[in-house]
Amino acid sequence: MDAIQIFLTILGILVLALFAVYAFFPRGLYRFLRNALRRRGKLVEKSIKVGDLVWPYLEGGPADGEPLVLLHGFGGDKDNWAMYAPEMVGKYRLIAPDLPGFGDNVRDMGRDYDMITQAARVREFLDAMGIKKCHMGGNSMGGFIALRFALDFPEYLLSMTLFNNAGVVGSNESELQKDAVAGKNPLEIHSADDVKRMLAFVAYKPMKVPGQFRKIFYEDFAAHRDLLDKIFWTLVEDGTVKPLNDQLGRVKTPTLIIWGRHDQLIDVSCVDVLESGIPNAESVIFENVGHVPMIENPKGTASRHLEFLAKY
Is the model's pLDDT at 9 over the cut of 70? Predict the structure, then answer.
């Protein structure tokens, strides 16, 4: 057997092994790929005790860099920032926690998950980490929490970046708002195949997720369905019945607003509300991007983000 035949034989065995792992051990393969993404972003998983909670978080970048705390959105977790991390860890100490109610943090139906409570928990997390000043960013629900944080604890913030944040109402109603008014949660997943519909709702050009991985997403959602439903309707109540539109003038933190033009969850008309309401704010809107610009366009989003952070 010559060298080419040996190579092809070994390659064939590796391909068969990969298919076997995917078919019979999809969670193991999923964790392997997730960890590879973390390594690419130079992220390390850590945890810290905060009161009666243990907060898992990802951290990367220089230990003496200015802290950049990034908060994920509804249904997400700390790994929502893994694709974004390679662009940001060169200068900043990136910290991405699992918020209470999500990921590997506490998932307790008996607790409150309104935005005021969550923002206070983030302050407790920063205190436990010994962080007195930081840049903060948040996507969707995480952006709502960041905005609430800027109102309640401005002394902690060097700057704030809002990625398609909830918490304000724009002039145009989004598809999610229409569904919520009708009593429907469009982010609820009803089957493994329904994951495709949800991803297409969130992203303008959603990534294709293999069937076995869609099954994992659905199983994880189903395991926490009641809690996620509770948090979703709390978020809707806080964001649409009690929006922060009339409080934006109190935000003194320098703010960057990043949005995807084709967001179906939170309409792009919210950008005008935020930029005109927050005294020291600037904005950028990306074309062909939906609700998660840091995932859909990580390089372009990070470039604008870094430009903004350099000012503060």
Answer: no
